[in-house]
Amino acid sequence: MRNFPAALERLTEQFARLPGIGSKSAQRLAFHVLSLPDEQAEEFASAIVDAKKTVKTCPVCQNLTDQELCPICADPERDHSVICVVAEPKDVIAMERAREFGGVYHVLHGVISPLNHVGPDDIRIRELLLRVGQGDVQEIIMATNPDTEGEATAMYLSRLLRPMGVKVTRLAYGIPVGSQLEYADEVTLLRALEGRQEI
Amino acid sequence: MRNFPAALERLTEQFARLPGIGSKSAQRLAFHVLSLPDEQAEEFASAIVDAKKTVKTCPVCQNLTDQELCPICADPERDHSVICVVAEPKDVIAMERAREFGGVYHVLHGVISPLNHVGPDDIRIRELLLRVGQGDVQEIIMATNPDTEGEATAMYLSRLLRPMGVKVTRLAYGIPVGSQLEYADEVTLLRALEGRQEI
Questions:
Q1: Residues B49, A41: C-beta atoms closer than 8 Å
Q2: Would you write out chain B's pLDDT as a tens digit for each of its 199 residues?
Q3: Nearest CB to B51: which of A34, A43, A48?
C-alpha cells in the first residue's frame, strides 16, 4: 500500500478543490471527517446537498433565498421604487442591520474586475437594467464597497442607469462613527470635508 | 430578512466546525459550495459519506484501510515479526516510499501529549501490546516523530515492551541526506556524531 484508501483520497481531493485549502489542509480535513461520529459526517454531507437544493437566488433582487421570492421582495411594506445595489448577499445583511433602509435590494454577485476576468456580463447587471426598464423605480442607491473595483462598478452602472431617467445616488463617504480622527486616512478625510453638512 | 437562508447557515456552521476554519472562511466555503454545479456538490457530499462508510482501521495494525485486513498485514511476503510503530497513517506512506522496510506497521493514531489531554489510553497502545503478547514478534522499531512528544511516547512504549522480551529499536538520528551541514541544528549534529559509523 503506497497510498491511502481510495475513498479517503477522493475526500481529500474534494477538500483540496475548495478555495484557500491547500493539499496539506485538505488531508487534515479529510482525516477530521473520518474521526467524526457517523451521524455528524452524515449531517455535514446532507448540509451540502440541502444548501445546494434549497438555496436559490430571488428572481427579482438576485439575493439568496429558500423561498419563491425573497422575504424583502415579497414584503409589501417595503418601498419597491428605491433599490439599493450591493455586491454580495452579506452586504444586504449589513445594510439590514442598520434598520434604516426601507427600500429593496439588488445583489450583483460580484463587481467588475478586469484583473480577475470579471466583466459586466459576469455579474447581475442585466437583471438590474431589466428591473429598472419595467418602470416605477425612482432611485438607485449604489452601495458597492468603497474600493477601486466597487467604485468602478458603481460608476459603470450609473452611466447605464441615468439615461433611463432614474435618480442614481451613492452612500456617503466620511469618517466612521466611533472611530478616531487621527487614524482616518487622507482620502476619507477629504471626502468627509467635501460632504460636510450643516448642524 | 436579517440572515442568510437556514440551509446556508447550517452549511456554514458545518464548515466552521472543521479544525482551522474560522467563521469567515466557513462562510466563504459555504458560498463556494452554492456556486458549484449540482453534480459537483453531490460528489462532495457523497465523498464524505463514502469515506466514512468504507474507510476503517485494520484490526491488526490499526492503519486506515477499505479492506478486511490492510494490504500490508495481508501480505505473506512481509516479515510479520518486525513491527514499525508510527504515530499517523501518513507516516506509513512516508516509510513505504523509502522501499526499504519489509516488516509490518502499527499505527498509534497520535502520541502521548499531556498538554493536549492525550494519555496512553487515548492512542492504540493496548492493541500493540496485544499483538506483541500473541507471540512471534522479534523487533519493534520506534518511528514516532523526533520531537518531544514523539520521543516521550517511544520511551513510554519501550519501557512497556522490553519486559515482554522483545527487542526495541529507534530510527537513527543524524543529518538529513542532501541537507547542508551549516543549517543543521546542534542537537541533530550531536546525535549524528554519537551515531557515527565506520566507512
A1: yes
A2: 457 899 999 999 999 999 999 999 999 999 999 989 999 999 999 999 999 999 999 999 999 999 999 999 999 999 999 999 999 998 998 888 888 899 999 999 999 999 999 999 999 999 999 999 997 899 999 999 988 999 999 999 999 999 999 999 988 888 888 888 888 888 888 888 888 877 7
A3: A34
Dist. CA A127–CA A82, nearest whole Å: 15
Provide the whole-model pTM: 0.77
Inspect the interface and report whether the beta carbons of A48 and B47 lie closer than 8 Å: no
Scan for cell 446556508, then name that residue: B8
Distance in angstroms (rounded) separating the CA atoms of residues A87 and A142? 10
Nearest to A122 by CA among A109, A131, A133, A107: A109
Render B46-98 in DSSP notation, one character per residue: HHHHHHHHH-EE-TTT--EESSSS-TTTT-TTSEEEEEEEESSHHHHHHHHHT
Specify whether the backbone of B18 is left (phi greater than 0), alpha (psi in -120 to 50) or beta: beta
Whether the complex's predicted ipTM surpasses the cut of 0.85: no
How many whole angstroms separate alpha carbon A94 and alpha carbon B43? Answer: 33
* Chain pair A-B, CB pairs under 8 angstroms: 146
B104 alpha carbon, distance to own chain's centre: 15
Contact A111, A125 (CB under 8 A): no
- CB A60 within 8 Å of CB A93: no
Interface check for B123 against chain A (CB to CB < 8 A): the answer is no
In this structure, are strands A64-65 and A79-86 parallel, antiparallel, or unpaired?
unpaired
